[in-house]
Amino acid sequence: MARPAKFTTEDLLDGALRAVTAHGTSATLAQVAQEVGAPMGSIYHRYASREHLFVALWLRSIRAFHVGLLATREIDDPREALLAQATHIPRWCRDQPDVALAMTLYRQRQLLAAPPAGLEDEVRTLNDEVRALGREQTVAFYGRRDDHLEQVMALAVRQCPYGLVRPFIGSGMPLPPWIDDACVAAAAAILDLEKPEKPEKPEKH
């Protein structure tokens, strides 16, 4: 009977996260092994290369971040649901600074060209559910959907707030509390560039 693995997948990913926190995004497998207290062979038994391990960490980090975005599906008011996405970004990055740093390890577009073996589907489909939610919320807010409106919505509630937050990630500077209000104000202003259509009121005779 094979002996149970001493170090689980989560142990190794947690060690990789601690290594990134301590040494930055250029952390090495040797530093991961030191964090876990594992021999290098235990890491290579589970992950074929440094990239394989750190892409797996990046995928786990992005999925954790997505939980709060996807939870906005439960908010009935379309505008409040979208603004809740904008506020989720600074709040989550403030509460989870180590995981927020791990999210900067890669970009999906970069990895799509040559993802590590065995992670191809996860890399390709990582953002599918968030994009599907975006299509739903575009219709709910604007009353219709097209590529332009989807781009406006994504810029408003995800790209712009993350752009405001990104300089603080890994910088050692805490996210200031006013960033939350700035994210909401910017998101609202961008959303309103394309006003939701309202039905015309019938003329009174």
Detailed description of the structure:
This protein starts with 8 loop residues before the first helix and ends in a 14-residue tail after the last helix. 66% of the residues lie in helices and 0% in strands. The radius of gyration is 21 Å and the shape is elongated. It has eleven helices and no strands. It has 205 residues and is mostly helical. It has two domains: 1-47, Arc Repressor Mutant, subunit A; 63-191, Tetracycline Repressor, domain 2, CATH 1.10.357.
Using brief descriptors, characterize the structure shown.
single chain; 205 residues; mainly alpha; Arc Repressor Mutant, subunit A; Tetracycline Repressor, domain 2; 11 helices; elongated; DNA-binding
Question: Which percent bin holds the helix content?
Answer: 55-70%
Shape descriptor reads elongated
Q: Please compute the radius of gyration using only Cα atoms.
A: 21 Å
CATH architecture of the largest domain: Orthogonal Bundle
Stretches with pLDDT under 50, minimum 5 residues: none
Number of strands: 0
Q: List the helices and strands in order.
A: HHHHHHHHHHH
CATH class annotation of the largest domain? Mainly Alpha
Strand content: under 5%
Could you give a short account of the major beta sheet?
none
* Mean pLDDT across all amino acids: 92
